[in-house]
Design a protein that fits this description.
The chain is an alpha+beta fold. It has 14 helices and eleven strands. A hairpin with a 7-residue loop joins strand 9 and strand 10.
Length: about 425
Amino acid sequence: MTMEEYPSDTDFRVFVEEKFGRDQTQDFLRSNKNFLVHANTTEDIANITRRILFGYDEAEHLKKGLLEQEQEEKATAFTFKTEDGLEDLEHELSRASSNENVFNDNKNIKISDVSQTDGGFEVDLEYVYWRQARRNLMDSQDKKTSISVEETGEEDVVKVTQDYRKYDELGAVQDFFDGWNRYRMENGDDPLEKGEIVLERLRIEDRVDFFDDILSENPGNWRFDQAIKLGLRQGDAPDEMFEETDDDVEERLDEELRGITDAVLTGEGLRGNDFVQQCISNGYYFKSGILRFVNTDVAEQVEIAIEFKQEPRSSFDISIEQEYETVDEGEREPTTFEEARRKEIRNTFRDLIIELYGEKVDLPDLIEERNTPQELTELPGIGDTVAENLREAGYDSVEEVFNAEMNQLMEVPRIGESKAEELTQ
């Protein structure tokens, strides 16, 4: 084994920050290293989990898992708020495609095609994917991805859906959306206000009820049958504290899966399970699950994986873990569905999540709140230094900055005329 074969610290940082995320890395360490890491952010755990915790075998295990993960197609979605209709948005992007507009210079993101669909329109994107090659050189690859844009049923709220295999496809769409907003502002149009589907915007109790609704709704003739695996995440300020460690709580959850399943199937719901009630009191909620559903119309069963993300990769992923054919007396045999059928199933559950989330929150108000800066450093172009200058000048809140006069803001060090005009518009 040469030194070039052994992963670098950068490799591990990519594994943790860009691919696996905080929770999945913690699960890996718990299961494979008997090592429990408490870290608040993905960056924290990336700094902790360097080569000192991973040998060559563990690194190969990570790579293998990453490759398998990236071969599995996932479905995700986000929403945005706009007063423009779908037809106007479609024409806008068609013009940008005809003009070969570049939405991101580094990735050379362009629109290759815009086409109408039954519910809205589809946008095909092409981009350059840059990756680190041997000896720290960069290698490029031309790639494609696509998104669908449709109405949600909420006034002025539009949903964007995407099927993807690799995270660079997800990143390309995020960069395209940022570039689309710049394009709109350059043409005198209001930016699109983006809204992710994030559990942390719900109360702890509502997060549990939201997951309960997913299990109870039976979308598209799919009836919930069994919870194969559930993942927990702890929120802020619990009313009580478990005596067990996080590791013990996870083990206990695995033992309680049958009881949790029964509580849903009997109509009691998740709150009807004593352990779930303890979880709520201790600030825990369900962040992910592998759930088996049985189709009541055809002889099919499917295990659906649902995972709700945290920053910086918000929103959620849906994928199919396993497909089955239902045989005699309800038994099942593993099978493989056609890709069109797999996509149809993913879309069914993706639409369900968007619909149920919209019932828990007011999507237009939530999107507006998300896009309203709460801290001085969230204002455009305002870093820590300028924020401190604003505080020293008597501007302690975003509202005070918005209500200030241009000439007053221009007296603050490092704020010129253009920045003062932008902040007071």
